[in-house]
Structure formats: structure tokens, C-alpha cells
Amino acid sequence: MADTSIRCPNCGIEIPLTEALSGQLREQIESALRREHEMRLARAVEQARTSVSESLTLEIQDLKAQLAQKEQKARTAQEAELTLRKEKARLEERSRELDLEVARKLDEEKQRL
Fold first, then answer.
1. pLDDT band for position 12 (cuts 50, 70, 90)
2. Structure pTM?
3. Mind listing the pLDDT tens digit for each residue in 93-107?
């Protein structure tokens, strides 16, 4: 069993470590490394989540803007169609009035002749 030692950073004395103590230190270091790894992973996941959330928010805003624009175009087209239908009805009415007026004038001319 090879004993390991550590040097005191203050006084420089070599301190031998027993295998049990070395094992405990190793476990503590490994545990600390695992916690650090988990924290980094959690931060990376949170950053990814934030990035995706921001990206989706922008995409949703863009889609809403596109939808609003298409709805406005549809309303404009409906208004134009309604205007055309009213104009068509007005012209048809005017055509009937003219036909009636022409028929009356023809009848008057026939009566006079």
C-alpha cells in the first residue's frame, strides 16, 4: 500500500495520507466534480431553454404579424367585393330603368303614329 502525501501550502511540511483518507478525499473531489458538472449542465440546459424560448417568441410574433396582414388583405378584398356587388346591382337597376323608359317611348311613338 503506497502512502501518498500532500504538502502544506503555508509551511511546506509533507503530510502523509493514509489510503482511507486518500479514498475520502478522492470521493469528495469526485463528488465536487460531479456537482460542478451538474451545475454546468443545468446552466447549459437553461441557456438552451432561454434561447429556444426567445427564438419561438420571435417566430410567434412574426406569424401573428403575417396573420394580421393576411386578415387585413382578406377584409380589403371583401370590402372591394361588396362595393363591386353594389355597383353591379345599381347598374342592373339602371339598365332595367332604361329598358322600361325605352319601351314607354316606343309605345308613345306607336300611339302617335
1. confident
2. 0.50
3. 999 999 999 999 999
Phi and psi (nearest 5°) for 15?
-115, 120
In this structure, the strands spanning 4-7 and 14-17 are antiparallel
CA–CA distance, 4 with 25 (Å, rounded to integer): 12
Could you tell me which residues come within 8 angstroms of residue 16 by beta carbon, excluding any fewer than 6 positions away? 3, 4, 5
Name the residue type at position 18. T
At 111, list the grid cell.
300611339
In the chain, count H helices and then E strands. Answer: 1, 2
Q: What does the alpha-carbon distance between residue 109 and residue 42 come to, in Å, rounded to a whole number?
A: 99
Distance of CA 31 to the CA centre of its chain: 40
